[in-house]
Design goal:
Blueprint lengths: L2 H20 L2 H17 L7 H25 L21 H8 L1 H7 L4 H12 L4 H8 L3 H16 L9 H17 L2 H7 E10 L11 E2 L1 H17 L3 E7 L2 E7 L5 E10 L2 E8 L14 H13 L3
Length: 307
């Protein structure tokens, strides 16, 4: 097998590792590309290509995350990961770990960890790497890596998401939610929301967004049930999709360009959190991006018109 063939076979795994460490599609793709350049430039073939490439993409991702932390601390408003529509790496034996670890909620919890803790946690808890492989990847002893995993588990324990509902139950609830959203059915929306539900938007100062999180089923249902029927009137469409392996939707303008995404956290038969990613810089990998400010202006204009 050629170097290119070996690399392409492992690309899905490398991207999935990098994305979970970085929370960014663009940065993960860059890390994978840099991994290929280093592999292609190496004069010798490693004993284990998988171990070599996994270690390389992990080290690159740790370095990128260290510099990204400063930018995230200065970010305008709430910071969310870049939405992922399809995780390229599949492993039936670890499907639960892979799904839970890529959810928006889990990626936000991973932000609590240091870059080194995060990398070790991802390699061990999500991908089940051996401690010898992890130690080689991060340049620490096996004992130190075990301690890092213990510390990371402790930091993650409080508030770690547990999506108890099965996939079909989540999707059925999401279907009812988006139908009620389109119809402006405030009562129907409220019945699907947890009492302390939060609606939060990530615009990064580059798109219209809420000044702060909206909390409470009645308030969230009233806002959504009022605004989204008007969006429908200006031909904004809702395309239900899995977002980070959880129910959600992609919203598009009348020209088909991506306006924003919405991701739902479902637990105990209710929606606990609604996250909207509106920042255009986080949507480009999904296709051409709409001008959210122009859509907002049109929405305000239409709402002022007499019925």
């Amino acid at each position: 097998m050629s170097k290119v063939e070996e690399f392409e076979e492992l690309r899905p795994l490398l991207f999935s590792i990098a994305y979970r460490i970085l929370g960014s599609v663009g940065e993960a793709e860059d890390a994978v590309q840099e991994t290929w350049l280093r592999y292609d430039a190496s004069a010798t073939r490693p004993t284990s290509t998988k171990a070599f490439l996994s270690a390389t993409v992990t080290r690159i991702s740790i370095d990128v995350l260290r510099s990204a932390r400063v930018r995230r601390e200065e970010y305008a408003g709430p910071w969310f990961p870049e939405p992922l529509l399809s995780d390229p790496y599949q492993d039936p034996a670890r499907s639960v770990e892979l799904a839970d670890s890529v959810s928006m909620a889990a990626l936000l919890l991973l932000e609590r960890l240091s870059p080194l803790e995060r990398a070790v946690f991802v390699l061990r808890e999500v991908f089940a790497f051996g401690f010898d492989e992890i130690a080689s990847a991060v340049g620490r002893s096996e004992a130190a890596c075990r301690q890092l995993v213990v510390r990371a588990r402790r930091h993650m324990a409080d508030g770690r998401p547990r999506f108890a509902a099965d996939r079909q139950e989540r999707q059925e609830l999401a279907t009812r939610f988006f139908e009620a959203l389109k119809d402006g059915d405030v009562g129907g929306l409220q019945s699907l929301l947890a009492a302390d539900v939060q609606f939060v938007g990530d615009g990064g100062g580059k798109a219209p967004q809420l000044a702060k999180a909206l909390v409470g089923a009645e308030r969230v249902a009233r806002l959504l049930g009022t605004v989204f029927p008007w969006l429908d009137r200006i031909d904004v469409t809702c395309e239900p999709r899995e977002i980070n392996r959880q129910p959600g939707a992609v919203f598009r303008g009348r020209d088909g360009k991506v306006l924003h995404i919405m991701a739902l956290d479902v637990l105990d038969g209710q929606i606990q959190t609604i996250r909207a990613v509106i920042n255009p810089e986080k949507l480009g990998h999904l296709g051409p991006v709409a001008d959210a400010w122009a859509v907002d202006r049109e929405l305000k204009r239409v709402r002022r018109l007499p019925n």
